Amino acid sequence: MMMYERVTAALGERPPAIGHAEMRQRQLDFCSELPTDCVAIIANNPTAIRSRDTHHRHRFNSYLHYLTGWHGEEGVAAFYFDGDDWKCHLYVQPRDVEKETWTGRRPGLEGALANWPIDQSVDRENIVNDLTKMVESAAVIYHIENLDEIVDDVVNTSAKEIRDPRKILDNMRVIKSDAEIALMQYAADLAALAHVEAMRECGQGMGEWHLQSIIEGCFLYHQSEWAYPSIVGSGDNATILHYNENSDSLHDGDVVLIDAGCEIDGYASDITRSFPVNGKFTAPQKQIYELVLQSQIAGIEACKVGSPWSAMHHATSHVLAQGLIDLGILDCTYEEALGDNYNGLYRNFFMHGTGHFLGLDVHDVGGGRQGDGEPERILTPGMVVTIEPGLYFGAWREDIEIDPKWAGIGIRIEDDVLIAENGPVVLTAKCPKEITEIEALVGSK
Ligand SMILES: [Mn+2]
Fold first, then answer.
1. Which residue among 100, 236, 333, 372 has the highest number of C-beta atoms inside a 10 angstrom radius?
2. Is 37 a catalytic residue?
3. 329-338 long-range contacts, CB within 8 A, separation 24+
4. What would the pLDDT profile of 163-175 be if each residue is shown by its tens digit?
């Protein structure tokens, strides 16, 4: 438990979950964008079978959670205007001692009404009748498809106009409040400190899964869990972007890449670090690492209020394209390396985006654009993004020629960054990324 307690000591106090007043304000802000003759239905994520009668752990739908704080299975919210005010109904499962004995406690109708910011709780048994009535008296239905089959049926059998509420909600979710930022800072701190412990414990003779267990154990010990399956890839595995088998042994001389983040009250952190298994980068590894780091720092510096979304990707790309030429990896002009539309030869080694929004979803809503054909989003205070350039030289790549000295190196460095008036705030700053810091830390347990 020593390493977990060290993390506890460095963490500080867990901030409170989002309060009811803030969620009521979200409901009002959402409803004020709707016509009063509509009903807006926000369903939950479905459950999924893992094996026979065993289910995957359920994760609430982020839109439903954003508007109501609901975190259980089932649970569907409906918003309508009653002539004076907007009302929120929540459909929930009633208390049932026999069923609860098997599947766990339920708040029931009374519990839901008392403990969630809603106007009425309704027995889920009545959802078809109740929603059908609401839909019949509305002119427009706001609805997200493919979450709840029963709700889909009610909506699709009506002949009403159906609209997607996500654009309205995404514009709200993309800007984080102080309470949300506090939760995200805590999620960032926990993941950062978990990465530090993995670096400290790392050594030869270990497996990728051991590093995974340190990181995820840290999350669990602090009543958190992974926000996405952890990636622990050493050597060539680091060059496979979504590798998460984490089943290889760590080898002397290899770099290991860990991409792991946790969730606090639904809010994600997302960190990647790449470090040498034996605590010392080789000369070629160091050259690639330095280049990715300079690119990442340029990406963070581009996180300026008023800049377009693409500014960050352009900043990282300029550094990488020039660096690949300087290292002799690309034998071409800078223009050829970069390409006309950031699609040049450097994309052989940096094939993903520079980052994404971060929030209730790890790849959070908002996107770079608000929709097809619409202008790019402009960076605004309260947005949280990741900056995560990388370079990958897979020895297994048959499509490009790679000098053996670079083969098997995969490096990505990822931080979570809050856009703020006075410049970018790196939420994941507790996780070291300078070469000297990393080399001092790895294997130092
Ligand atoms: Mn990411």
1. 236
2. no
3. 329/403, 329/406
4. 999 999 999 999 9
